[in-house]
Structure formats: C-alpha cells, structure tokens
Predict the structure.
Amino acid sequence: MYLYLSDNQLIGSIPSEVGLLSDLMYLYLSDNQLTGSIPSEVGLPSYLVELYLYENQLTGSIPSE
C-alpha cells in the first residue's frame, strides 16, 4: 500500500495511528510543515520499504521497529 501525502502543506505532527497500517509499504510525507518527533509507531509496519520525511521540521531519529 502507498500513502502519498508529499507537498500537501500538512501542518502538525505525524499521528501514531500510521503504525496501524499493517500493509503500508511506501510512506511519503515530504515537503510539508510537519513538526515534532517521529512517532515510534512509524517503524511498526513490517513491510515498510520507503519512508520520505525530508523538508519538514521533524526531530529525533527514525524508529527501526
């Protein structure tokens, strides 16, 4: 499954519920105005292949699991 939300002027934080998307393989959130830390749940989808978060104001490291 793809979730492409890049360049949509999104504001706020990444919701932890993104980790509930168990079939998520590609998550594109680049070029928005996202802030805060990267939720640990982002690393939960076991099939996640690509994660694009650049051009935001996110802090912390990318969770591995």
Notes: DSSP finds no helices and six strands in the chain. The mean pLDDT is 90. Residues 11 and 33 are 5 Å apart (CA to CA). The first strand starts at residue 2 and ends at 4.
